[in-house]
Amino acid sequence: MPIANPQEKFIHELCLTYDSEHQFLEALQQMNQQASDGELQGMIQAHIDDTQQQIQNLEQVFDQMGQQPQRQTSQAAQGLVADGQTSLQEAQSEAIADTLIAGAQAKVEHFEIACYQGLVTGAQQMGQQEVVNLLNENPQQEQNTAQMIEQSVPQLVQKAMQASS
To answer: What is the pTM assigned to this prediction?
Structure first.
């Protein structure tokens, strides 16, 4: 897809983010099945619900921009998902797997925050206030999720340390 102006750049990034959210939703569903810590599972389930809402918000943004929702494969999202899956295959215990899941999810959250910040800035520069309003919900949810995950990591690591001794 040629990118000749700021609106085409915005649509390109929107398509990449839309694909990323779909890839991450599938990965979250897999991680939720692999997680053994109940609190971690609860956080993942809450983020699955958030991600489904974020996808709907993105679909509304496409509509506001006069576009059909379209996915353009995000190589970055594929890489983050593949890294997480590879690490999980190496986990020697459920407790270690939980720490790896939390770490992978934290990386994804920060990637998503950066994606949404770029989209919000682009929408602001184009004067698309309705799009800005729709997009602003998503990075806030991502930041909240990142914070919850990061707060849970010490407890998960402690469990893993106790399980391995």
So the answer is: 0.93
